[in-house]
């Protein structure tokens, strides 16, 4: 189990647990949550106190507090070793880095934009080195 505290505007970014299903229960506040199926369909909903939402094992999901008040949730996972893969961190913050050309083609952006996004994750670019990123996830 895990407790999730999400400040207003805070995001638990898209991620997956490759070895566990997750059941999320809202204790206080509201969260916009969702997951994406393997065929690209999104199931999303705004949850309030007492609501429960299940994220199937291995599917990309997120929790976002778009309300004015802090939110608290409890996550129950079906494994003691669920794993955690944050999608953006894995793609834009890998080490060694995925090439700018691969990311640009995959996301239909130019290589300069791919480099700029990678800089936010503190990865080493092929043209320069990024030492630090100032990303803070509010959860």
Automatic annotation (TrEMBL):
Binding-site residues, Mn(2+): 15, 17, 22, 61
Protein location: Secreted, Extracellular space, Apoplast
A GO cellular component entry from the record: apoplast
Keyword Cytoplasm: no
UniProt keyword Chaperone, yes or no: no
Key words of the record: Apoplast, Manganese, Metal-binding, Secreted
Any Pfam family hit: Cupin_1
Example GO molecular function: manganese ion binding
Residue ranges occupied by any Cupin type-1 domain in the UniProt entry: 1-115
Residues reported to bind oxalate: 12, 17, 22
Signal peptide feature range: none
Family (UniProt): Belongs to the germin family.
Name assigned to this protein: Germin-like protein
């Amino acid at each position: 189990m895990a407790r999730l505290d999400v400040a207003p505007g805070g995001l638990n970014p898209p991620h997956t647990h490759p070895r566990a299903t997750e059941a999320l229960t809202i204790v206080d506040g509201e969260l916009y949550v969702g997951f994406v199926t393997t065929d690209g369909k999104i199931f999303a909903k705004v949850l309030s106190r007492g609501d429960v939402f299940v994220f199937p094992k291995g599917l990309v999901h997120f929790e976002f507090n778009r309300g004015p008040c802090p939110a608290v949730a409890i996550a129950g996972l079906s494994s003691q070793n669920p794993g955690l893969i944050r999608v953006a961190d894995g793609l834009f913050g890998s080490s060694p880095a995925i090439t700018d050309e691969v990311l640009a083609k995959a996301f239909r952006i130019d290589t300069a934009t791919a480099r700029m996004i990678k800089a936010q994750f503190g990865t080493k670019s092929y043209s320069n080195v990024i030492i630090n990123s100032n990303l803070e996830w509010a959860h």
